[in-house]
C-alpha cells in the first residue's frame, strides 16, 4: 500500500516537469517565465524612481533681477526644465492644457514694487495634476524652491537694515530642518512598488497554471488522491518557489531593490503563499466545469486584491468596510510583509501571515481532496 502511494506521488510530481515524455512547457512558461518577465517589465517602468526635468512654461511680466532669479532657480533645479516663455497668463494656461508643460510659473508685473513697499507679492504656480505622480512631484519640488527664495529674499532685506549676513540668515530662517528619509533612502517608486507587483505576477501565474491542472489528459485512474495532490503541490512549490526567488534576486540586481531581511524569512513567506495558491487553484479547478470559467472567476478575485493589499494605499487609512473586505484577498498577507522585509529588514506581520496562509492552504487542499473523491476524472499515466 505504501509502495503504491509513493509510486503515485512520484508520478504526480514528475508529471509537472514532463508531459507525455517531453518538458512541461506550460509549467516553464507560466510558473517560471511569467514572473521573471513581470519583474523585468515592471522594474524597467519604475527604474527612474523619481521624476526629473518636469517641463515648465514661464510668464514673467516683471522682467527684473528678482524675477529672473526666480525663473533661474526653477530652470537649474533637477526637477524642472523651462521649455517655453509666454507673454500672458492665458498663453500660460493654454500651454499647460495642450500638454507643452506640466507646470506654469506666473510672475506678476508689480513684483519688485510690492516687495520694496512690503505689500503682498504673488508668484503663481500652476500644476497640471491629472497625473498624480507629476502633481505630487511638482508640488514638493516647488515648495522647496519657494522656501529657498523666501529665505534668501528675507536675508537680503535684513542685510540692507544693517544686519550682518549670519545674523540676517538666522533671523530669516531661525530653525534649520534636517530631513533624513529612513528605510527608503532614494525615496523611489521602484523600492516601494516592485516587490508587491512581483507578488501579483506570481499569483496570476499560479492561477493560470492551476486552471487546467485537472482538465487535460484524463486517462489514468489514480488510486490515492492524497498522493496526487501532494505530488502536484511539491512540484509547484519547487518550480514556482524557484521562479519567485529568482524574480526577487532580479529586482535586487537589476533595479537595486534592497533586501534587508533574512533569506529564510523571504523563503518561508514565499512557500506559504505558493502553498495557499496551489491549493486554491486546485480547488477552483475542480469546482468549475471548465478552465475558461475558472480563469474568468479568478480574475474577478485577483484584480481588487491589488487595491486592498496596501500597495497603493495604506491599510491603516482604510475605512471599516474595506478593512473587512481586504481579509479575503491573499496578496494582502504577502505584499506588506514582503515589502517590510525588503525595506525594514523585519516584519511584525510575518509569523501571523504565514500562519494564515498555511491554514487557508490546508482548508483549500482539504476541499480539493473531497472534490477529487466525489468527482469522476482521470489523468494521463506517466
Please tell me the overall pLDDT.
Answer: 81
How many distinct domains?
2
SS content category: alpha/beta
Topology pattern, helix = H, strand = E: HEEHEHEHEHEHHHHHHHHH
List key phrases describing it.
2 domains; alpha/beta; 6 strands; single chain; four-stranded mixed sheet; abc type-2 transporter like fold; disordered C terminus; 382 residues; 14 helices
Your description of this structure?
- With 382 residues, this protein is α/β, with parallel strands linked by helices.
- It folds into 2 domains: 2-47 and 188-373, no CATH class; 54-172, abc type-2 transporter like domain (abc type-2 transporter like fold).
- It contains 14 helices and 6 strands.
- The protein has helices at residues 2-15, 25-46, 65-75, 89-97, 111-116, 132-160, 165-172, 189-210, 225-255, 263-287, 291-308, 320-325, 332-343, 350-373, and strands at residues 18-19, 22-23, 54-60, 80-85, 103-107, 123-127.
- The strands form 2 sheets. The chain has a 4-stranded mixed sheet, sandwiched between helices.
- The radius of gyration is 29 Å and the shape is elongated.
